[in-house]
Amino acid sequence: MYFECANVVLKIVNICNRVNINTVIFNAENNFMSASENKQIALKWFAAFNEHHLENLLSLYHENAQHYSPKLKVRQPETEGLIKGKAALRSWWQDAFDRLPSLRYEVIKLTADEEQVFMEYIRHVDGETDLSVGEVLQIENGLIVFSRVYHG
Description:
Number of strands: 6
Radius of gyration: 15 Å
CATH class: Alpha Beta
Strand content: 25-35%
Low-confidence stretches: 15-29
Helix content: 25-40%
Strand order of the largest sheet: 2-1-6-5-4-3
């Protein structure tokens, strides 16, 4: 069931990416990674995040990457949930690591294709209720260009 849902979500996200001008539109000239390579990027992402290793995490992102999160909408309403560029990513995650020293993610499932990885995970923070999360990492030439978070 999870696999079928993840594949449907990936197809929907692919369609949405092609019609949403705020996202990166891919064409035949772009160098896509294999699904396996994209899964490895996701695993590196989890390792860096769970170690709170900001530089390793940022090294996975393109300089002009964008990140969308419902938590951003709450903590930084002026962003409307969307931040752009490594400087903004650095500030966002440094704040999270400082405020939530026990923050960690438990991988449930990774579903990848040549353009992106759909990640299902549980967000754990001491003293807070666990949160089910879905996140899409859109990848181009080995770097994350857009990440979108969805809470369950």
